[in-house]
Design a protein that fits this description.
42% helix, single chain, 11 helices, alpha+beta, 2 domains, five-stranded mixed beta sheet, seven-stranded antiparallel beta sheet
């Protein structure tokens, strides 16, 4: 299995300048390749340029511009071109599926924050020797950069990536390792129902409260956003030091909220994986749930629109994004795979409207957000607990019906 590791780097002033230049030059390569594809399609009878054609031009590009392109790793530049090729592949896939296309866009220097080295040992080297107390990673034209390695890397390192987050630099490793030993079996099974009032409810009647990290930091985020909005829009090279400090302050607040949300997701998922052998959850379409309402034109007023509940939906979308269901489910699946546990997604329809006692399904069974009262057998319980119990039963049925 492939596992990723992320470590904080501690570059010197000169190494920081070299890493910044590397990101800038790879960003220039990405934008130039994107411009070539656009021009070829528009002005050359809709000719499509593929990755192989652009990769074959790298040798000439490096010879033409040795100061900016010739000093960096050839394989990392190929990885940047593959990144653009993947963006176009995703664009054409969305077009064929009838979704919103999202044509690949040019990247600003602040939006291009990752450079990948496809193979350890090819112009980069992860150096983690047991007898050396300081871990370093070497990059071509940058040097040996100190790394704060807070955990051991298990397995053979496959790829090495440089990532910038604000003023911090990270190295991201992917390692190929054997399947770890599964955790001892507990015999426990559980179904979970994700929510907003409570982050999740389990089929045993337990609840995990929603920390609402984004809502807790909303006042500080709003003040920082307002402070940033006071600066006029000017070119990046003409922005003042106060403007840069306002940008960094807002970025730090968002990064803190993101770290808090990830920490909560990791701890909650770890507790579930340690205590249960089988975990069932709803197969939620989070992107559809947070979709913006379609405008309703007013037939009586040209250019006017009728109320469509966009304001209320915006508040709900903000709460959905703050809960971070998608990130939590990804972490839960990864931890369960490492621990030898089984995670299964089930159809979420009517899970909170079906009575677990008599099986009666009706909208009237859930009179409020929290209360469940069956109109057929008068069974009463918390609506989220009922939903989690129905999710568990559906997951067990699906597991038994699955072919061996």
């Amino acid at each position: 299995m492939i596992r990723a590791y992320k470590f904080l780097m501690r570059p010197t002033v000169g190494q920081t300048a070299a890493l910044t230049a590397m990101l800038a030059d790879h960003c220039s390569l990405y934008n130039g390749a994107l411009q070539e594809r656009r021009d070829a399609y528009r002005h050359a009878s809709k000719v499509s340029i593929k990755y192989g054609q652009q990769s074959a031009q790298l040798k000439d590009i490096r010879a033409f511009d040795p100061e900016r392109q010739g000093r960096w790793s050839f394989s990392s530049q190929q990885a940047t071109l593959r990144r653009l090729d993947k963006a176009f592949a995703a664009f054409f896939r969305r077009v064929k599926a009838g979704e919103k296309p999202g044509y690949p866009r040019f990247r600003g220097i602040n939006w291009f924050d990752t450079v990948e080295f496809p193979k350890d040992g090819d112009c980069c080297r992860w150096d983690s020797t047991p007898h050396d107390p300081v871990t370093r990673v070497r990059f071509q034209a940058v040097g040996h950069v100190k790394v704060h390695q807070h955990r051991q890397v298990v397995g053979k390192v496959k790829t090495v990536s440089v990532k910038r987050e604000g003023r911090k630099w990270f190295v991201v490793l992917t390692a190929d390792q054997a399947q770890p030993e599964p955790l001892p079996a507990t015999g426990g099974v559980v179904g979970i129902d994700l929510g907003i009032a409570n982050f999740l409810a389990d089929s045993g009647g337990g609840f995990v409260p929603n920390p609402c990290h984004g809502r807790s930091a909303a006042a500080k985020l709003e003040a920082a956003q307002q402070a940033l909005a006071r600066f006029p829009r000017v070119r990046r090279d003409r922005r003042t030091a106060n403007h840069r400090r306002a940008v960094e302050k807002l970025a730090k607040l968002h990064a803190k909220v993101r770290r808090q949300r990830l920490d909560h997701a990791h701890k909650t998922a770890l507790a579930l994986v340690r205590e249960h052998d089988f975990i069932a959850h709803e197969d939620l379409k989070i992107r559809n749930m947070s979709r913006v309402p379609v405008p309703k034109p007013d037939p009586e007023t040209p250019g006017g629109f009728l109320p469509n509940g966009a304001a209320a939906k915006a508040g709900l979308n903000r709460s959905l994004n703050d809960a971070g269901w998608g990130v939590f489910l990804q972490i839960l699946t990864a931890k369960a795979e490492s621990a030898g546990r089984e995670v299964m997604a089930v159809d979420p329809r009517n899970t909170s409207r079906r009575c677990p006692e008599c099986g009666h399904t009706a909208k009237e069974n859930r009179p409020t957000q929290e209360k469940f009262h069956c109109v057929s057998c008068s069974h009463t319980a918390h609506a989220d607990t009922v939903g989690a119990l129905n999710v568990l039963r559906a997951g067990l049925v699906r597991r038994e019906a699955a072919p061996a």
